[in-house]
Amino acid sequence: MKFSFNESFDFINTSESFFKDYLLNDDKMLMPYVNLTIMDGHPLNKTGIDVQLNYGYMVFTGVVLVKRNKSWIYDKSQFRYGKYKFFDVGGTNIDSGENEDLKILCETGYLQVGHDAVIESKFWIPIETPNYCVNLNATYLKYFFGFKMLPIELEKIFLK
Fold it and tell me: Is a pLDDT exceeding 70 seen at residue 126?
C-alpha cells in the first residue's frame, strides 16, 4: 500500500474532520487529522462513494503564509520567491470545539497515512458531538494528537 499522496489533494475533504494542534517548524507544517473524507477518485478510494480515513496527516512544505480563520498567523512571504499554491483545510478544532478554516500558501501539500490506516464508510468520532458518540480509543488519540505515533517518514522531517 502506498502511504504518501501528493497528486490527489483535491479529492480530500476536511470539513467534517477533526484536528488539534499542528506543528509549524521553519517552512514545514504538519496537521494530524481524524475522519478525513477521501472522495471517489482518490487512489485510496476504489469504492465509488466517499469514505472516511480514521487517522492521517496533512503535510505542507515550503510554507510561506498561514491564515487561520481571518488572521494571518505565519508570514514569511517577504523572504521567499518561487512557485506556490494555496491549500484550504479546516474542520473541527478539538481544543476549542469550533470549526476553523486554514489557508496555507506553500510549495507542496500532501496526505500521509500510517501503516494502520483504516478507510470505511463510517464516521470516526474523537469527541462527543450532538449527533454522534466517541468511537475511538482515548489513549490512542492522545498519542496521535501528541505526535507520538508519527510514521518514520514524518519523524525524520518534524522531530529531528
Answer: yes
Mean pLDDT, rounded, for 89-104: 94
Distance CA 81, CA 143 (A): 37
- Residue whose C-alpha cell is 462527543: 128
Q: What angle do CA 9, 12, 17 make, to 5 degrees?
A: 135
Look up residue 127 and give its DSSP letter.
S
User: Do residues 63 and 105 lie in contact, with contact meaning Cβ atoms separated by under 8 Å?
Assistant: yes
**What is the DSSP code (8-state) at residue 84?**
-
C-alpha–C-alpha distance, residues 34 and 58, integer Å? 11
pTM of the model: 0.91
pLDDT at 88: 95
Q: Where are the domains of the chain?
A: 4-151
